[in-house]
């Protein structure tokens, strides 16, 4: 119970700080070399969750350790435990938000006679590309969470799933999209060249305003989900 209250306290503090953009440099959050503070909707003692600049599907978000570890084996036991417990927590939040809509309730609060949607009401892809040769484009451990909304974004019948192909190609190039965004912003340091400029005519990186709006939605769902 104490740990639960502590996690809720941390998450609430981030919710209050991020929208106002009044935090100090110590509060700013980085994903590899990129500042992503305003994309973050949850922070725990060792992890944070953020919306994706180029999501493959609605609700495609990332969970990362706060320390910029490059490989999963670099994490301590408390960090690993927190990373995957946070992943489960975000799954429950996404299920409540997206699987509810897929059942025709359009995001309205659940009726008291009905339990809120759970991960069992849909499916998820959970992926971690551990190292550059596995497709990791930002040198910072991150778990991809993709809700598969019943009747909308669930897997087509057949032996393969295009999501895995997209994650390995330009569609899933999170590092390339962040590089594109940051070098176009004045005053931002240019990364060391490991991310070439990407030309992607079919999918465009989202604006910061769009990502902040999505993060606000997820924070509200988390508050509603975790109120006693």
TrEMBL record:
Biased segments, Basic and acidic residues type: 197-206
Domain annotation HIT: ranges = 27-155
Q: Cofactors per UniProt?
A: Mn(2+)
Superkingdom of this protein's organism: Eukaryota
Q: Where is the active site?
A: 142
Keywords of this entry: Hydrolase, Nucleotide-binding
Q: Where is this site: Important for induction of apoptosis?
A: 164
Residues that bind substrate, according to the entry?
Answer: 52, 129, 135-138, 144
Q: Does the keyword Hydrolase apply?
A: yes
Task: Give its E.C. classification number.
Answer: 3.6.1.29
Q: Where is this region: Disordered?
A: 100-126, 186-206
Indicate yes or no for the key word Coiled coil.
no
From the Swiss-Prot or TrEMBL record, what is one GO molecular function term? bis(5'-adenosyl)-triphosphatase activity
Give the EC class as a word.
hydrolase
Q: SUPFAM superfamilies, from UniProt?
A: HIT-like
This one is known as: Bis(5'-adenosyl)-triphosphatase
The source organism is Sodiomyces alkalinus (strain CBS 110278 / VKM F-3762 / F11) (Alkaliphilic filamentous fungus)
Q: What is the lineage of its organism?
A: Eukaryota, Fungi, Dikarya, Ascomycota, Pezizomycotina
